[in-house]
Amino acid sequence: ETIKEAGLNRYLFEMTNIRDQCSWVHMHEPEKATEKAKDLVRMAVAKARLIEPLRQLSLSINHSALVIGGGISGMVSALTLAEQGFKVHLVERSSELGGIAGRIHYTLEGGNVQAYLAGLIEKVTNHDLIEVYTNAYIVDASGYVGNFTTELMRYRGPYVERIEHGVVIIATGGQEYRPDEYLYGRDPRVLTALELEEEIAKGKAPRRYRSRCKCLHLPSRLCLQQLSYP
């Protein structure tokens, strides 16, 4: 703003942050800090020599959003935007919404995850401003902030669909770690926490477990005890 008030282009400016990048981080080495400060100033001057005046442009933006990932994070993001009046394109690679939450049945406090998930999916799929693309993945993306173009390939078809949008939310989530250790994949008695939870959710464990010694996942251990597997 000072440069602008002086009648110059406001972008003819280059800053050297001596305090944060030098004096504070090297407060116990003053001599080395001084030399580093000199180098920072030299670099800033060299960069300033190449600065050219810029001018601001006013561009229209696309007010729709693309949300990548149909798990809980993606659906909550899509619903939050849609409830504010924005059009949302929700893209999910698999055949249904839910993500990894579809394999989780209860919280640590005993909350019903599947009931919450079903309600969230119903809100998303029935919202007039949310368009859901399942069995789809992104093959190309282009554009700039406020105006993007993304191409989707649908598994059913296949065919390419183009989406115009102004912002992107990446909510692809994570995947369960499947180890090579502990005989996992070689001994059917070795399960991940999610696999164990899925079996517990069926109401009857197919085999006995020594939960006291080998079940380290607290909610699963409590459920196993309720199933009379101490």
From TrEMBL:
Coiled coil: none
The keyword Cell division belongs to this UniProt entry's keyword annotation: no
Listed SUPFAM superfamilies: Nucleotide-binding domain (SSF51971)
InterPro entries recorded: FAD/NAD-bd_sf (IPR036188), HdrA-like (IPR039650)
Keywords in alphabetical order: 4Fe-4S, Iron, Iron-sulfur, Metal-binding, Oxidoreductase
Pfam families, sorted: NAD_binding_8
UniProt GO molecular function: 4 iron, 4 sulfur cluster binding; metal ion binding; oxidoreductase activity
Protein name: FAD dependent oxidoreductase domain-containing protein
Native species: marine sediment metagenome
